[in-house]
Design a protein that fits this description.
By secondary structure, this protein is α/β, with parallel strands linked by helices. It contains 9 helices and 10 strands. The longest helix is centred in the middle third of the chain and has 14 residues.
Length: 240
């Protein structure tokens, strides 16, 4: 199993942000994290990625406990946070080489990794242009290439198409579907259309708990549409 999550819990003061979250994920699956603002999606993703320690429970990547052996686990995880920082004066090539060398890669290994990640992220001719001159869609691709640099089997993407125009969203969705053929992906999004377009499963989180874990098609069939399922299950619309 690529990822096994059991009983994750995280509190901030008196507020419980994540409460007993558990699920599994294997290669070839693309899981969409859905939920209202403040539901616990990003907190859960940060714990799985090793950037936040849980109060209780465990996330294991290839049976490596993320909290107990973070370095080894993170070698197998690529994480793209929402609004990932980039250095605008750098080109994607120099930025990605910097990231690779910061990860401990040799100069030659970093060059090889940058070429592969740039191809996977479809950076094309933008590889030699200053990042600050790129469109928002291509800047997101640079962030995605950075997450892919060490060739992880688990990708965690927080709002990967947020703020993109329809053409840019379609291009990133096609890229996500292709990457999901040989990896496991978790995508946090507010876009129900995106979940229907690319995800094999939808996990709905509300008030820190998983409410449902089904395929988008099954949810749409049960409730009439994915939007109706979301509104009903999160209290936005009462059941008839």
């Amino acid at each position: 199993m690529l990822l096994q999550v059991d009983g994750l819990r995280k509190t901030f003061g008196r507020r419980t942000a994540v409460d007993n979250v558990g699920f599994s994920l294997d290669v070839g699956e693309i899981v969409g994290f859905l939920g209202p603002n403040g539901a616990g999606k990003t907190t859960t993703m940060r714990m799985i990625a090793g950037y936040l320690e849980p109060d209780d429970g465990a996330a294991k990547v290839f049976n490596i406990d993320v909290a107990q052996d973070r370095r080894r686990a993170q070698e197998r995880v690529g994480y793209l946070p929402e609004g990932a920082p980039l250095y605008g004066e750098m080109t994607p090539w120099t930025f990605l080489r910097f990231v690779g060398e910061a990860r401990g890669m040799s100069k030659e290994a970093a060059r090889h990794a940058v070429r592969r990640a740039a191809q996977d992220a479809r950076l094309g001719d933008s590889i030699d242009q200053p990042i600050e001159t790129l469109s928002k869609g291509y800047r997101r691709r640079v962030g995605l290439a950075a997450a892919l640099l060490h060739d992880p089997l688990l990708l965690i993407l927080d709002e990967p198409t947020d703020g993109l125009d329809p053409n840019q969203r379609a291009a990133v969705r096609d890229l996500i579907k292709r990457l999901g053929e040989e990896r496991g992906l978790i995508i946090s999004t507010h876009s129900l259309e995106e979940v229907e377009a690319v995800c094999t499963r939808a996990i709905l989180i509300d008030k820190g708990r998983i409410i449902v874990d089904k395929t988008p098609a099954a949810l749409a069939e049960e409730f009439g549409s994915l939007e109706k399922a979301f509104r009903t299950l999160t209290g936005g619309e009462e059941r008839a």
